[in-house]
Every structure is written in structure tokens, then in C-alpha cells.
Amino acid sequence: MIVDRTVISDWTVEGSGTAVPPDVRSAGPIAASVPGSVHTDLMRAELIPDPYLDENEKTQSWIGLTDWTYRTTVTWAPDGSERQELVFEGIDTIARISLGGDDIAVTRNMHRTHRIDVTGRLASGDNQLQVAISSPIKAADAASMALGYRPHANHHPYNSIRKMASSFGWDWGIDTCTSALWKPVALETWSQARLAELRIGGDVVDGVPRLRVTGTIDVTGFDEPLELAVSVAGHVLTAPVRAGVAEIYEDVPNAALWWPRGYGEPALHHVVVTLRSGDEVVDDRNYRVGFRSVEARTQPDATGVGFKIVVNGQTIHVRGANWIADDAFLHRVDRARYSRRLAQAEFANVNLIRVWGGGIYESEDFYAECDERGLLVWQDFLLACAAYAEDEPLWSEFGAEAHEAIVRLSAHPSLVLLNGNNENIWGFQEWDWEKRLDGRTWGAAYYYELFPSLVAELAPHVAYTPGSPFTPDRSARQNDPSQGTAHIWDIWNEKDWPHYRDYRPRFVSEFGWQGPPAWSTLMQSVSDSPLTPESPGMLVHQKAIKGNDKLTDGLTAHFPLPNEMGLWHWAMSLNQAIAVRAAIEWYRSLTPHCTGTIVWQLNDCWPVTSWAAIDGYERPKPLLYALRHAYSDRLLTIQPDESGALRVAIINDSQEKWIAELTIERRDYAGLLIDQQVQTLRVAPDTAMDVAINKALATPGRPSNELVIARLGDATALWFFSDYRDSELTSNPCTAIARFREGGWDVIVRAHSLARDVALLVDRVHPDAVASDALFTLLPGESTTIRVVGALDADGADFSAPTVLRTANDLLSKRDGT
């Protein structure tokens, strides 16, 4: 008998405790959406305003101090099934569950499924089901005392309970401390047997695709022989069920391999798994599986220990972005939204997404999108910036959630790396944790024992690292850029972006620079009057410690600090893009010494000043265009060599030869050619090379008015001899003419003097408009056409408005605009 599943709906939720405001208390139980959260239910009932707007977050702290009770009625009639089970796919977080007035379970982990056997407990007719969720703030505080204090980032002891860390706020995240039934709740009834757990994954062994399947079977006393059958790529593979387990590990020789984006096709194969008793299908599952091998390779060499992600024997030059939960209220992120976000990642030429450890084990929709797009996924286990107790009940909860996550996610070919934690090993060494711990456990046994043993047992076809940053020698200093993976944060926190070139890392898994959200997002979420960088709503939407000071410090070496909000917004947005592009181009110029970068961060969970390239209302910031340029398959960049002389670095990550004439020129800002060198280059696929620039060509006569331009095919690189604020850039360097076309506009931008870092901020024309390119530089007389999607009701002149057509030149002149 195949499992019958009924999703349970028609819930209410009600808060209790002294923190509940009178108007909410008098409203009594309100309708609750499941999946959902108390915040979104309260918004729907018009009992709270949107917490994303203005200073509303400040007024809603009572929600996290409140106990919340969900209630519904489960109507059931005996259906001949032998087993009835309630399945809670996600409860956030500490909950007591009762059925018909009797307690049936206590749950302590939002990151795992809870399956509760209620056989014999259901009455015919209506059954009252209640989920009482404790205040997460109070629960975390109590657990922290019971387990003993462990150091953590931010202000709540999120490390004491198994709730999404960033739900308690982060240096980019809203502090919601919400409670929720954030995934579906269902009643499942069945007889005979069911597939309790199915581990499935595609591997490649000695060049041959191989399928791994392990099925664990639950039975109700059924004693007939059972068989597991798997259909894939024209093959039918079978195995008998013995002692509740069936295993298949067989070659699928004609299956096409799954390749990452840019390296081949991400071939997927439909897989049908059936549990049979004779000719009867008892239970079944459907998957889409890809066959690939993966290795996280660490190799000592003359300059340290390298780190490479190797897929199907091919070293992947990682062009990555870190991912946080895409909304503070997780249930609002559906397949369409994942698709939009990952399409933006592809637009930015990203080939790997790192799912950060303060969020969630991402959804099937997320992974399915990555599978289809060939996007690699690095998934952290959910421990971030904190010490974690290795005592009960946490130890068992970590084991259970890790087991479930590994089994679920390892079916996806896009998952290539499971990582033990974010910054915790480094934190233990460098952040004075040891003396604060006073001998208490801090999580090492998770990273070096529990997690790697579970990965080896459940998903040997997925690579594992103990942490990020990661130095292979456990006893050595973590976050050593010459050993394994590194996080480079001192540039943003203490220095300035040109200092990225002080590093020669092997692999950078975090680095970044802050910038505000798109202007229309700012207007939509903050209504301060006057609006300034330090007005009340702006400060609520700036979570980083001394964030505005760091923005200012990082700007003034390059541009004067504007005293007008529109220009301030442009300056900070542009400087974010410049900083990150400078870092990526430098690190990529070190290929193959440096094998990858993962920028912090791709996305946001609400409208906020942050390190993201896409803001919390899904709008691209200038940084997204900087990523698109810096992460192009074929990159040309001019960089200093170890002696300080200039070189052209040519990086060909494509799988085709790059044969073209390399032209290197020194010109003045008027476009006059001063010197040049020319040569024909043949750059093999998946390789990099340097070309030295002649000393005479690289020596300016007038640094503030000269630049070097390198061209190879369609790729261009620029090197300016002086910083922005020391350059002889003129105001109003370009014009724009817009021509309407179906679906949007073609905007022709033409320069009459050197126009540096040109951008069309088209969301100022219409909030949903999107431009095809930004942050390009034009010499006098040059032009380019930008395609704009949307803004159909605009006037063509809108695109040449000073607030829309922006350049770096604007920040060096007295030209204003709001």
C-alpha cells in the first residue's frame, strides 16, 4: 500500500505572556498559514506593520519574547491503514505537541523533520492538534545557562538552540526571533511497508557512472519478501530487502555525466525507485540524478597548501558567491523566487553558491534549480561564528539534523562540498574563546568526528571540509591565506580595498564590501524626512558595527564624501563595486596559485545596507555588474607583478582556445595614443598567462591624465595611474539617447570626454526596470548601447537625468542630484 498523505491546514495561532500588546491579546487566535510564521500571520491580520519598513523592527521585539500556540482540527476516519503518523517537516523551534489533549512529543530543532507515530491515538472524527512553541529568546537564554556559556557573535545566544542563527539578527540581518510552522504538516497513513529513508547519489568511478542507492524500510509486521527496484538511463537495478535494508551500487555505463556550468552540460537522469512485494508496488520515489565525481583536493607545494574543487577529474576555477536565506521569513521563498535569484547569479557569471552556516539547509527547489543550471553548491553545516556545546541535548540534535540533511541533499549532483562550520575553528584560535570557555567543549568533535563520519557513511560521493576558513593541518593557524581556504575581512574592517593586493591566497571563501540597497528599495523601505545616512530608519537598516564609519573610511581615499543623499548613495554603491571587482581581478590574476573566490554575499534577506550584490527586494546593485565583469569566462586585467611592474593577466576559464591580437596602449584622457605594444596570443582552454608591459609604456608622463588600455578580442582592461580623486576627470562626460523597443528601451550612451564607471540607475526611472550592463568606461567618442527591460511608461529623456545616468566623474565635480 502506497503511503497516503494529507496536508493539515486551517490553523490558528495565539500568543501568550506579559509581552503581548493589549490589541493583539484581545484579537485572540488569528488565522495562521502553514507553512508560515507568526510575523506574517500578524501582518495579515493587520496587528503589526511590515517589520522591514522604517523602525518597525524596534517595536516588534515582543514577538520573540512571546510563547505562541498553533491549533487545528485533524478530521480522520479509519481507512484500513495499519500505521498513522504526523509529520512535521519544520517547527521553529522549541515546541510541545499535543493531540486530543495528550502530549505526544517535544521538539527542539527547526532543521529536521519530526515524525510522530499516532497509531491508536486518533479518534474517528475531529481531533484537536496543538503545537505550543516557546519564546525563542527565553528558550535560548535558558539553554545557554543550562549548557554553560559559549562565545557567540551578536547579542542573543543563538548557539544554545537549533534555530537559524540569523533569525536572531546578524550584521546584515533583521532580528525577528520569529516562531513558525515553517514547513508543511501532514498526516501520513500506510500499511505493510514504506521507504523510510532513501540514500541516492550519482558517482563516477574510474570514469564510469555509478549509482549508489540504500533504502531503509519500515514495516508493520508484514513478512512477505520485499524488493527495491531502480530504473535509470534504460537500466533496471534490483536488490532484495534484508533486515529492513536494500543496497544497490552498480555501474550505469551509458549515462551522460553531469558537468558544472561552463565545463559541459549538467546532464540529469530520471530515476524511479519502487518498493515491491511481488508485482505490487508498495511505495515509490522519483528523483533526477546526475553522475559526477568530486574531490576537495589539498596539495602541499612550494608556496603552501593549495585547495581545489575537482569535478570529473577537472579542476574548477571557482567564481562563487555566498548565499544567505533569501527572506527572513523562509516560507516566502518559492521555486520561482529561487529561479530569479539563481538567474541573477548566472548573469554575474557565478558557478558556485556557498550556503552559509547561519542559515538553513537549503530547499529541494533551490537544489533542483542548481542541478539544472550546473551551479555547484557548497553547503555549510549550520554552525556559525560561535562555540557550540558537545553535550546533550545538542549532540543528538546535531547528529539527527546532519543525518537528515546529508541524506536529502546528497541526491543532488550540484552538492559537491559539505563544510563543518563557518569561522568557528578560526574563532577558537583567534577570538579569545579559549579563556572564556574555561575548559568547556566548543564544537571540535562535530567538525573532526561526527560530521566527517556521517558524510563518509551516508554520502561518500560528496567532499567534506571541517570548516571555513580551513587549514588542512588541524594544529596549525587557521585562516592562513597560504594554506587551504581563507576569509579576508581586515580589508573591509580596517584597511582599504587596494590592500587586497597584499594577499596571495590559495582560495578565498569570504571577502566583501558594503553598499546600500538600490535607490528604489531605499525609498520603499525607509521614509525618513530628511533621509540621510544617519537618519533613524537608515540606522535601523545598517546592522554592521560602525558600518557607516567603515563606508566613509573606505570612500574618502578615493572620492570626496558627498553631502547630498543621492550622491552619497551613488558613491557608496560604486565604491562597493570597485572594491570587490578589484579583489576578484587580483585573485584571478594569480591563477593557478589561487583557484577560487566566493564573494560575500550574493543576496539579502530584507532591505538593508549590506555586502550583497542583490538587495532584499530582489534588485541588482552595481556590484552585480562588477561581478559579471570580474567573473567573465575570459578575463583581461592589468595588475602589478611582485616587483611592482605592470603585467596583463589573461585568464581563460572557457573550454575553447583564445587566439587574438593583444594590444596594449597608453593614452591620455582625451584618447590620444602615446605608446603601444602589440602581439598575437594563443591562450589554451582553462589556463592563464601573463604578459609584461614595457617599462616605457607603463611609465606615465602625466599620471593624472593617462591610462593603460589592453585589448584581446572582446576583452578590455584598464589601468589608471592615479586614484579617482587625483584624476583629471571632467563633469558631465557623456550623454544618453533612449529609443523605445518592445519590452523596454535601447539606451545609447556616448562619451565626449573620458567617462569612468558609467551606470544607468534605471530603478530610479521605474522600480522594476533592469539594465543589461553597468560600470563600463568610455573614451571620448566611444559609445555603447544598454538594453533596458521595463519602464514602458517612461519618457526617453528620463534615462539621461543626472540621477539616472551616473559616472564616477560625478563624484569629483559639483554636480548634484537627488
TrEMBL record:
Is this entry keyworded Hydrolase? Answer: yes
Q: InterPro entries given for it?
A: Beta-gal/glucu_dom_sf, Beta-mannosidase-like_N2, Beta-mannosidase_GH2, Galactose-bd-like_sf, GH, Ig-like_fold, Ig-like_GH2
One GO process term, biological-process aspect: glycoprotein catabolic process
Source organism's superkingdom?
Bacteria
Q: Which residues form the Beta-mannosidase-like galactose-binding domain?
A: 30-183
| Family of the protein in this entry | Belongs to the glycosyl hydrolase 2 family.
Per the UniProt entry, what species is this protein from, by scientific name?
Answer: Amnibacterium flavum
Listed under catalytic activity are: Hydrolysis of terminal, non-reducing beta-D-mannose residues in beta-D-mannosides
Full protein name: beta-mannosidase
Q: What EC designation does it have?
A: 3.2.1.25
* GO MF annotations in UniProt: beta-mannosidase activity
Query: SUPFAM superfamilies, alphabetically?
Result: (Trans)glycosidases, beta-Galactosidase/glucuronidase domain, Galactose-binding domain-like
Gene3D superfamilies hit by this protein: Galactose-binding domain-like, Glycosidases, Immunoglobulins
PANTHER family per record? BETA-MANNOSIDASE
Q: Which UniProt keywords apply?
A: Glycosidase, Hydrolase
EC supergroup of this enzyme? hydrolase
Q: Which residues form the Glycoside hydrolase family 2 immunoglobulin-like beta-sandwich domain?
A: 210-292
Q: What is the lineage of its organism?
A: Bacteria, Bacillati, Actinomycetota, Actinomycetes, Micrococcales
